[in-house]
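Box 3.1 A note on notation
Throughout this textbook, protein chains are presented in two layers. The first layer is the amino acid sequence; the second is a token string describing backbone geometry. Keep the layers aligned when reading.
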Amino acid sequence: MGSTKNRVSTQLVDYDAQVNALTAGRFKDPFSFLGAHNTQSGTEIRVYLPAALRVELLIDGQVISALRYKHSDLFIAELSSMPSSIYQCQVSYENSDVIFYDEYSFSSTLDEQAMYLFNEGSLEHAYTHLGAQFTTQQGVDGVRFCVWAPNAASVSVIGEFNFWQANRHFMRFHPASGVWELFIPGLSADMCYKFAITTLSGEVLDKADPFAFKMQQAPGTASILQYKPAPILLSEQAIINRQKRNHIDAAISIYEVHLGSWQRAEHNRYLSYTELADKLVGYVIEMGFTHLQLMPISEYPFDGSWGYQPVGLFAPTSRFGDYNSFKYLIEQCHKANIGILLDWVPGHFPSDPHGLHCFDGTHLYEHADMRQGFHPDWNTYIYNYDRPEVKSFLISNAMYWLSQFGIDGLRVDAVASMLYLDYSRKEGQWVANCYGGRENLGAIECLKQVNLRSYKNNPGIMMVAEESTAWPGVTQSVEHNGLGFGYKWNMGWMNDSLDYMQQDPLFRKYHHHKMTFSMVYAFSENYILPLSHDEVVHGKGSLLNKMPSDDWQQFANLRAYYAFMWAHPGKKLLFMGAEIAQRKEWDHDHSLDWHLLEHQSHQGIQHTVKRLNQVYQAHPSLYELDSCATGFSWIDNNNSQQSMFSFIRYAKNADHFMVIVANFTPTAYQHYTLGVPAKGTYKVVLNTDEVCFFGSGYLVTEDKNQLIHSVVQPSHGFDHSITVNIGGLTTLYLEKVNDE
């Protein structure tokens, strides 16, 4: 390396401007000054170390003293030539001596090709490039920090490892991509960190890492260093199982859960992911649900948002444990062949100061125009879907949950709010697109790309849209000008049917169309019938309390309604607590009222749901043709006077069918005649008025085997008919068991 000098003359060159910038924590190009640099007289190594008393450099086995520049925290060592390798700093502080590698002796390892894709809006795995990545660089272990902040004047990494000083770890700026990068050696997992971002106006913003794999719980706001999680690798058989259980002709019955309030431990403590893996998954299996859907689990600061205002989109919330215990929960679902869906929130983000809002001092992730960038309903900010980097961010987040955890799919929240520029806005409060329309073209393209890439990279998944309007082609393929979702929530059916059920049975005949109208559009999309958390919050009451009349009739109404839902075309979704007839509105701060199961009435509802799931999965006629008109036929949809509905569900093999009749008045009927599509013997598969369900026990037939023989008597357009007795507020399922 040549001779070295232990003394440098710091008065020959004026570094006052650089020192002032370093001291202020505002230095856009630190690698142009710090580290090793050639000068007219040789080579200087410059290190800026606040509070250091003495600095020596360990270079190629030699110890070289660095002298303080004036009275600053800048230390300079003079060499005759550039060092041949990375070097270490041996630093004395008031109470300690430390040795570490100089961060400014490492070269950049930023993947320029990946950054090109990021800036293009097509990077699918941005979480492997941005954020905090444990890596080995030039033979040294450490963490590479990368953050997108193109309009910042300066960015530093701050954390417990540098006493949260913004003037210690200045990052390197890459103008082409707008990304800042720095490798810091010697860091370990579970250290807290943030990015100190100096804006062009001089304001310093302490921001959490948008790509952090772990974050502090509120009131903490820091990101936490976490080794990149090893993905859950699905076997070939596991992928086949996923394809089968999510297919359009599969029986899909989803149990929607808020992990924080499904069940609590002693002293109102949250159950951990590990405890939930044992208790919740076991309960889902016992109840016969095929899928478990979790309300958002990306880290969120405000409990009252239920997860719908996330700040850490790549971090499973630590409320219930660490990454490995969350992974265990997912693996237990896989082991039990239970589909696992996550609620995903790409429609908006909260205004928390450590979050994405005005990330680099500008409206980076959101639109600058409040008419496009602010959501008046939720006081949140709306992503700028036209910006390619935002698109890469959201695509990568979807890929992260799907590929890292092998989940079955994502339920995409509030899709309607993304599709329409005038969503929940009055005239003059929104901006039209370039064609003068109200469609959010950027959001539409973003959703299409998310769906295309999700299905391509993760065979057999299901992408679900919570879309509350009549937007055409939500579940059509992108190639056919659709949005590319696999399923859509049928909000129309939910609103109409609940409105009907809340009517006094005496007046239901005037609302008969609310239970039949859904069949006008039932096959226009691949639908899921949702009775979700949204129906039992904000003063709406519980499902049980929506039912009219006295206590017994409320339970009877609910049983009949559930059976009608399970027979109606469309996959099923039920929010936790509905299966035990929770009496109170859902409260995210407390457990479900499991003690209600001490009462036969609530046991009856639970037994009904369990039996419905069993019958549903055992009879292809109830699910194989959910999205095909050949799978459904009315027997009588006009009997409004008796508030009676009867129809047939067919399997792909049309010889296999189920006859359904629902009576939504308290009046029982004897010898009620139903036309049937084929002669033979019919068996009662389900009667919601059975005593075991807390019903009255009204017998459908006197036959001890619950068999009914058809007769040659035309009815409802069929040549054959059967006669049944049907109790009040009752739904019956009847299956043909032979041709005699």
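The first strand starts at residue 35 and ends at 39. The CA atoms of residues 682 and 737 lie 6 Å apart.
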